[in-house]
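Q: My labmate handed me this sequence with no annotations at all. I'd like to see what the chain might look like in three dimensions before we decide whether it's worth expressing. Could you predict it?
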Amino acid sequence: MKPLRVAPIVAILVFACGSPPSPTTAPSVSVPASTATSTIEAIESPSDGVKELLGGSEPLAPGRYTRSGFQPPITFVLDEGWFAGTLASGFFDVQQDRNTPDVIAVQFGRVEGVVGADGATVDATSAAAAAQSIAENPGLEVLGESESRMSGLTGANLEVENSGEAHSGILDVPVGRLGIDPGRRLWISLFDTPDGVLAIMVGGSVAQWDRALGLAEPVLESVVIGR
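A: Here is what I predict for the chain of 227 residues:
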């Protein structure tokens, strides 16, 4: 995956607090905020015809999408086969193979905190600090770490897997805590933005990891942050 400079990961994030907003039942180099701001402002606005990502049971029509109200503004392109997943304040995703053990999700979230060493919650003060804390999460096996580049921003990538027997929390977004179940992998890319730490993630099963990455790759390559 050229723009990301990393072999992505997969695992599906599941809401672990209260009733899930329902993703289908089955989220170390950083740039200072000032640099991120100037980078985002330099990005051209998307062309006309951007579709609003709305909920529903029907597959989404191919095209470029955005989620109004999500900060920082994000657009991305979908081919055939994608469905709207969880659409909530500070978090949304699109999915394939819904309602199966191999559900695939491309997820976007504004990170408020992460689960670090000893399972303690740590505030997400920067992308680099959040990545370091996630790497110390005792419920995760870290398969890889690298620098990420996307839409003109530089961030931090982690590939993690839950090789244990219990659900493991990973990070907090405005609607609650996201985590990973056993037998799942997650690729997490973290960026500093003027609106806080942004996480762009790919989740899927270990068994179908290569397929999940192949489907998610074009979406990730199309992402524009800020407009």
